Amino acid sequence: MDVSVVIVTYNALPWIERSLESLEGTGAEAIVVDHGSSDGTLGLVRERFPAARVIEQENRGLGGGSNTGMRAASGRYYLLLNSDAWLNEGALEKLVAFADEHPEAAVVGPRLLNPDGSLQRSVRGFPSVWRLATEYFFLRKLAPRSRALNAFYAGGFDHDSVREAEFVMGSAMLVRRDAADAVGLFDEEFFMFNEESDWCYRFLAAGWKVLFYPEAEVFHVGAATTRQNWQRNYREQMVSHLRFLAKHEGMREAERARKMLIASLLLRGAMFRGERGSVYRDAARWLRSGETAALLESRG
User: Mean per-residue pLDDT for 28-42?
Assistant: First the structure.
């Protein structure tokens, strides 16, 4: 198969071994881009998987690491796979066959499963002020399957059939090289979060499709990396929302989102105690420290 699998690692034990094991026998090119692991990740990869190509670089975020891997890849498809995700038997072959049958698809997303085999909902909607409000004010919990109150998490999306999507989670996504060549790789201004939503937005704007294909299944632990520094990464999530809106909807819309997020995080900070409440209050303080343009420039 003409597929290059790109896995970005940062202290990826214990999941990276299972991730790479799931590629054995597929014939895929495996590329591991490491961002400074200190937990033995690199030693394990080199010892257990000598055929995998290892690239070490400073931490440039998930998009930046994926870009490095894709630039080094030889496949006509890229499979971007999180270090805490692994393929079910036959998943890669199914993804490639489906993509070959649908040349209009820039991205094909598999069905994601939790480690216990239950469904992990993996289709999302592009951020907007309203959609973010339904999340951060807990409105989506009033009608979790409603598109009106839960379009951000693609409420009501059927994960049992082939469907077009706005974007699929970057935990596992097959990307057509020709499409990536046409629109460019990840925007590395998105250090973490929303890099895949920005990419899919650009694919759709260029006339490509993003398709969800449930016959191929991938297990995904979820947040194995982001939990390592939740407070910093939660603030990074706020940055990514503002950056997406500023880029695609304009700075005025991003500024509206900043004010809405401040209000929602102050509410959350009052509702929750302990570390969780502290994370919300810290994010609110940062959002109040300047207008959107200045905040994004400081994170550039």
Answer: 97
